[in-house]
Amino acid sequence: MNFLCICTYFKGVEFLKSCKAEGNTVYLLTNKKLENKAWPWESIDETFYLENIDNTFDTYSNIIKGLAHLMRSKKIDRIVALDDFDVEKAALAREHFRIPGMGQTTARYFRDKLAMRVQAAHAGINVPPFSALFHDVDITEYLQSTTAPWVIKPRSEASAAGIKKVHSFQEAWDTIHSLGEERHNYLIEQFKPGDVYHVDALTVDGKVIFARCSQYLNTPFEVAHGGGIFRSVTVEHDSKDEKALAKVNAQVMKAFGMKFSASHTEVIKCYEDGKFYFLETASRVGGANLAEMVEYSSSINLWREWAKIETAVATGGVYELPPVDDFYSGIIISLSSYQWPDYAPFNDPEVIWKMDEEYHVGLIVRSSKRERVLELMEKYALMIRDLGYHASAPAPDKPVH
């Protein structure tokens, strides 16, 4: 089979390797700025580049024209988006060339935060009270019928980029007005204080066959806007929380029409009422090295298995999930004041992975006991802060390449 993988951020190396290992021809469409990155070139048959990766009509037109030219001599059987920002590109190309897979309507549920909330609410899934920013009267009525604080967020950005927290009616309207002609690309929702969780999953034939539930110890919003240290840890196995999170994830996948893919879903457990509220989802593997964290707790490499799933679906084969382990893992990542931090002080035997990226410090620990993972997460957070490793930067309006 011939796979076109669209990935305009540097990620998905294991997917590309696995896709090739399954006997496929692998084409990569990526950002011209990433041509010198350490892609697994031995697993890529041909590479194509985009000068402009923004999801605009010009970019879409270039993709369609380029793919039309390619397909005169080479048939494309499947198109896979390896990053959030490429979901629309892949869906458009599938629709235009009638290639099987997620179309534009379904893709919206995994990219557009407004579409997510509307669809989830229609399916009876708890979501924080929200409003589109289309109609002035609707917005005013929404603000008057809910209580502050609220968050105003882009409909199509990833992570916590571009999110603004507002604390009064006037501040909300001032922020909305500041968006100018772009306000239709945003939404507003009530801020629900609580613990934020993520469910990293694999779906085959419309059924979730693997789900690993984890809890952010510092939410992505806190990290992006407070200069904090990113941490996440596996949820207690067979606990009420794990079962509730897995149920919400399964409901979301069903409501959104997910047939087969990896997914990353975020859910909040509200302090006020103890209920779980769906926040957002994505039809891809989670970022911030969460895939490595999941693998060290479960032995499931999400990138690798996703490629196998795509191949099995494309060829009419049968996919079998490997045996799943039930360890606990935790990840901690921070910007660092050192170009290449010294990891010598982080020497507990549970340390199983160390981040190798300039001006970052990051670790994954693994244990058979969750309490030990939590203990190490706290210990290393204090060390990163107190030993001068930690650095912070202003929250970006958009994610950085």
TrEMBL record:
Question: Which domain of life does the UniProt lineage start with?
Answer: Bacteria
Recorded source organism is Emticicia soli
Q: Which residues form the ATP-grasp domain?
A: 117-311
List keywords of the entry alphabetically.
Answer: ATP-binding, Ligase, Nucleotide-binding
Name of the protein described by the UniProt record = Acetyl-CoA carboxylase biotin carboxylase subunit family protein
